[in-house]
Amino acid sequence: MSILVYIEHDEGTVKKSSLEAISYAHQLAQNQGEGDVAVIALGSVNESEWSAVGAAGASRIFHVTDPRLNAGIIQAHATVVAQAFEKSGAQIVVLAKSSLGDAVASRLSVKLEAGLVSNVVSLPDTSDGFKVRRSIYTGKAFADTAITTERKILAIKKNTVEIKTDGAAPNVEPFDVDIPENDFAAKITGTDKAEGDVLLPEADIVVSGGRGLKGPENWGILEELAKSLGAAVGCSKPVSDMGWRPHHEHVGQTGVKISPTLYIAIGISGAIQHLAGVNSSKYIVVINKDSEAPFFKAADYGIVGDAFEVVPKLTEAIKAI
Ligand code: FAD
């Protein structure tokens, strides 16, 4: 079985979630017997990334370097991926579940007349048809969904696949595409990214603060901890509502939904609406002075203590490593 993986990059570096998608595709191809994994990469992806892409399990790469594809113009991406699908001889498209991934997948589903399942958490059960398990209700339950179309699209939930690292070097194959001008009708005229900031939705580690930090003037200890870990900073809703932190840092049901490898919640009670946005994190660490705080029930590790004492000590210990 041949599988095509659509990968995303951040200024030339392939995203971790895309390497997970390649590793997923590799396992799926192996389980089905003979087959290979091809990757479609769009825009200015660094060629030095191909070794990681090959190590994750891809044997072929189609790279379309047109710089207009850097901006994530969704319509054009869907057009190119559909053409790569036909060229690769694949039966399945795999990609990472993300806002760009979902937007491309839905358009691709129409173009290829392919059944699409998003938020996939395990390999399909092919003993009787093609059934995939996906995460629903913000990770509280699973649904098994059968895809009955010949062509299939799977969007893989972040942090559910171990990245393979021992694959061989892939072949980079030339690929000419024909993108209608109309696909570029929407234009991104500029992006505003603060220097040095780690983007919250993509971050591998997030350090987040709640009302327990008492005021915006106390955010320094949290930022220091985030800096020592290379983490993004988040906050609870009341914190952004009160103007202590910008709204784009608010995580939860009504804010940004994140799936980092590590989520550190400081002075946050763990209300259900907050958990809805963070409970897909691989590991959750809670720092709260109230041992009865509901967040401890969702935590992998907990520290009962005053944030103003615990956090600086934690930062010091991390810096000493
Ligand atoms: P609190 O509930 O006040 O908790 C503060 C915590 O800090 C307490 O547990 C306390 O023990 C601890 N603390 C105090 N001092 C210290 C200290 N010195 N050291 C350590 N710990 C300390 N909330 C979100 O976060 N995201 C959402 O998306 C969201 N959406 C919502 C949608 C709806 C429709 C509604 C009704 C609510 C929503 N909320 C959301 C709000 C949510 O219900 C909670 O009110 C909110 O998450 C609580 O924020 P908090 O934990 O920062 O504050």
From TrEMBL:
Keywords: Electron transport, Transport. SUPFAM superfamilies: Adenine nucleotide alpha hydrolases-like, DHS-like NAD/FAD-binding domain. The keyword Transport applies. InterPro entries: DHS-like_NAD/FAD-binding_dom, ETF_a/b_N, ETF_a/FixB, ETF_asu_C, Rossmann-like_a/b/a_fold. Residues 3-188 form the Electron transfer flavoprotein alpha/beta-subunit N-terminal domain. It holds the Pfam family ETF. Belongs to the ETF alpha-subunit/FixB family. This is Electron transfer flavoprotein subunit alpha/FixB family protein. It comes from Negadavirga shengliensis.
